[in-house]
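Need tokens for this chain, all 194 residues.
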Amino acid sequence: VIFNPTKTKLIVFGPSRDDYHISFMHGSIDAVESHKHLGHLFGNVTQEEIVSRMIADFNSRVNMLKAHFGGLPIDVLYSLFKTYCMPMYGCQLIDLSSRCIERFYTAWRKAIRSLFRLPSRTHSRLLPYVCDDHSVETQLARRFVKFYKAISCSSNAVVGACARLVLAGSGSAVSNSLSLITDLCTVDRDDVLF
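Here are the structure tokens for all 194 residues:
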């Protein structure tokens, strides 16, 4: 494997990153506090920062969709919304038990009201029925369970070890999300996969 030092970052966890100067493959590697990889921010970032970036990206996509396709029939518009605005790559790594995730749920509700041209006071419990879809909370929970099932069934030893840590209650964002879902569904952590 040939590494490109300009595309490689050293994420330093701690207060200072000025002391690190690393040369690798005839180039210098930048020491950073965080870095975006495959659409997800890693490093010294809080759930608040991750959710804020997710909301900004989501709102940008929704506004673009409304600007270019706002005149389409509602069913087509919602299909485009699901395809273009809701992929949210890496959302399975967000702590669904974090209070800040409610900000994303609010952004989703506002987007649905706007796309469907509903009054701003339309009750949030009605929005899944209007869309003929699951609530945003359920959509994210389903994505998480699918992700957790995939890592639990992985033949990769490292991925399997991570899944076992999550199941044991590691305190990570993924473990916290698993706890939230098992509490809401009143199932045991071991039974999520069935």
